[in-house]
Structure prediction request, 175 residues.
Amino acid sequence: MRPDVVVMDIRMPGMDGIEATQTITAESPGTRVIMLTTFDDDANVHAALRAGASGFLVKDMALEDILSAVHVVAAGDALIAPSVTRRLIAEFAGRPEPRPLPREPLGVTAREREVLTLAGRGLSNAEIAARLHISPGTAKAHIASLLTKLGARDRVQLVIAAYDAGLVSPQHHDR
Prediction:
């Protein structure tokens, strides 16, 4: 089976959800995984996102919000529960300034670097287009190119890449 979206728990008998997510995303790149769990500690969130999860939700969310998240992830976007997002932002805010990578990491052009920085700050394709004075289609094409070049599955992983590269920092998180 090649489902569009898999809703996964972290703790399962046999293989845990993190390992299962790694396997699914490696063997079926078109399949998106949403973690739905009561175990929302930071280590699990980080491991799930690094394993390729496109969403991280907690079981105490409203059913309508969970169903909406499935549709969002199926459409190719990513979603993290608001309570988890608040903690991630607080954690990033407490980190020391990351060391920037070279100006053009992994074959990323100067324009793609600008797009990655803005995507890392949470801007949409339309907002990126307006900020850089390009068309929304061009912004979308740059995002698609970055996904390919950086081996990222979705925008969540692009945000992680922007933080890891030192392009975005919580202390200077202006939109």
